[in-house]
Design brief:
Blueprint lengths: L13 E8 L2 H7 L2 H21 L3 E6 L2 E6 L7 H23 L6 E8 L2 E5 L3 E5 L1 H16 L3 E4 H5 L8 E9 L8 E8 L5 H15 L3 H12 L8 H15 L3 H11 L2 H20 L6 E5 L5 H9 L4 E6 L2 H10 L6 E5 L11 E7 L8 H11 E12 L5 H13 L18 H10 L2 E10 L6 H7 L3 H4 L4 H15 L10 E9 L4
Parallel strand pairs: 4-7, 10-11, 10-13, 11-12, 13-14
Antiparallel strand pairs: 1-3, 1-4, 2-3, 5-6, 7-9, 8-9, 14-16, 15-16
Helix pairs in contact: 2-3, 6-7, 7-8, 7-18, 9-12, 14-18
Length: about 500
């Protein structure tokens, strides 16, 4: 074993290794003390042997960890020997220990390079001090955050030429380490036995985009990789990068919902046209010249504007429970006739006036309290007025909801959905008739129609139908879930998807 660094002056080149047995305190709580002691002794012995095999020196044992030094008194550079030592610890010693002990050890390792001073502390502890010592200790702590076994600093990485050791390195930039003033670039040691070279190259390209604050360019890789169920070992690290990208982009998730709605609203527009055509026919036959129209679930205001164009003399109000939708409607349709937009759900809307037409396209199935909603609508529809509704029929999109369940299960998100139930209320024809009649409406026409299945059905459902699932997840999990759903659903034949819809025209009871 080589000598320790000199007692005074700087070592020309030194690498520091900190290794720690993770969750030691937790092990003491849940395992027999004798088993834990055996594990600690076996682990420290194995780690010590690895240090010795690579011409390193144990500087000290620290509870459930150790600090080792690699000096320049060998033909092999200190940084290279430190990396080789970490590999030996992980892929030789730890597997051997696992076979002998009742508990499998989990180790985190931090490596850093630089110059140090040897000092004697109060005549008790002969040790070394230097920035690289602090960095190595903090990197070992950081391993737990990212759920990775080995992290090293930039100085160590630059001293290890590619191909010298059988591993690759991936960049984890701009990390804040406790007690270190400046952010530092860190690197994970990725053994060739575990990591595909192409994946590491793509990861590093995205990480460089991140470091250069090109978050829009970095984000797609991290989301795509996070949504891949075969890349579970990287879940914590990918989640971190994707979340940081979202944070730096200052993304407003609700505004993204509104933009996504706008990008995939063609299907709803076509469905709205059918309902408007039915409504106009009944209004003409009944000689109804509406003075006030309410669009329930107005979305971005596109259909509300069409209603205002058909009835230019009417006062038109659009309501929606999503603030982002109402803001978008106000922004894009502010000059379209006499239209007012309000952020409120139909069950909570209490105007001091009645309406001649209540119109709702693909919205009422989102309302959980159907009784309150229909009570409220009956109160605000004047006698002889018309109620026009389009919504999903029972069974609509069942197959896509099953694909959504498969997606979150594959990603390991089951706990997020333990108490989840899909909130849409789809009726059959008979149940819709009963619901309307029980709230003093008279059905004029009700149709169950299998809508044409558009080529964009998967994207359409991803933007609207997945909303309840997305609300269970954070930004990163949400984007990964949506990506995984698209991958699964795109394998399905679109002809197999149930798209049955209900189209309803009703009036107040006793007015025909």
């Amino acid at each position: 074993m080589p000598d320790r660094p000199p007692a005074s002056g700087d070592a020309d080149e030194i690498a520091v290794l900190f290794a720690d047995l993770r969750n030691f305190t937790r092990l003491l709580e849940f395992y027999d003390a004798e088993d834990v002691h055996s594990l600690l002794d076996e682990t420290m012995t194995g780690l010590r042997d690895a240090v010795t095999e690579h011409d390193g020196t144990i500087d000290k044992l620290i509870g459930d960890g150790l600090m080792a030094l690699f000096t320049d008194e060998s033909d092999v550079a200190p940084a290279v020997r430190a990396v080789q030592c970490a590999q030996t610890m992980l892929y030789d010693k730890i597997p051997e220990i696992s076979e002998r002990c009742a508990i499998e050890p989990d180790v985190g390792i931090g490596l850093a390079s630089g110059s140090v001073h040897r000092i004697d502390l109060a005549g008790v502890d002969d040790t070394v001090v230097g920035r690289c010592v602090n960095v190595a200790a903090r990197l070992q702590d950081l391993c737990k955050k990212f759920d990775v076994p080995v992290l090293l600093d930039r100085e160590t990485r630059m001293r290890v030429d590619d191909g010298v050791v059988p591993c690759s390195f991936r960049l984890i930039p701009d990390q804040r380490l406790q007690g270190i003033y400046e952010r530092v670039d860190t690197y994970q040691m990725c053994d060739h036995r575990e990591f595909d070279a192409e994946y590491i190259a793509e990861f590093n390209e995205a990480a460089r985009h991140y470091k250069n604050e090109e978050f829009t360019e970095a984000l797609p890789f991290f989301i795509q990789a996070y949504s891949d169920p075969d890349v579970r070992r990287d879940r914590a690290l990918l989640h971190y990068f994707a979340s940081e990208c979202f944070s730096r982009l200052n993304t407003d998730a609700e505004m993204l919902d509104a933009k996504g709605y706008a990008a995939h609203k063609d299907t709803q527009q076509e469905q709205a046209q059918r309902l408007i055509t039915q409504l106009l026919g009944y209004a003409q036959r009944r000689d109804l010249n509406p003075q006030r129209i309410l669009d329930i679930g107005c979305g971005d205001g596109s259909v509300t504007e069409e209603l205002a164009e058909f009835y230019p003399d009417a006062e038109v109000i659009g309501i929606d429970s999503q603030r982002s939708m109402v803001e978008r409607a106000r922004e894009h349709h502010s000059e379209a006739g006499d239209i007012e937009y309000q952020t409120v759900g139909i069950q909570n809307y209490t105007p001091d006036l009645t309406f001649d037409i209540l119109f709702s396209n693909s919205a009422l199935h989102w309302v959980q309290d159907q009784a309150d909603a229909y009570d409220n609508m009956r109160e605000m529809l004047r006698t002889g007025g018309l109620l026009a509704i389009h919504q999903g029929h029972e069974g609509c999109y069942t197959e896509l909801r099953e694909d959504a369940r498969t997606a979150y299960r594959q990603l390991g998100f089951e706990e997020k959905f333990e108490d989840f139930s899909y909130p849409l209320v789809y009726h059959t024809v008979s149940r819709m008739e009963s619901l309307l009649e029980s709230h003093d409406f008279e059905v004029l026409e009700i149709e169950r129609i299998a809508s044409d299945v558009p080529e964009t059905i998967v994207d359409d459902f991803a933007e609207a139908g997945l909303a309840p699932y997305r609300h269970q997840l954070d930004d990163t999990e949400e984007r990964a879930f949506v990506q995984r759903f698209r991958d699964i659903a795109s394998e399905r034949s679109i002809e197999s998807i149930n798209t049955d819809r209900l189209y309803v025209i009703a009036t107040t009871a006793g007015s025909t």
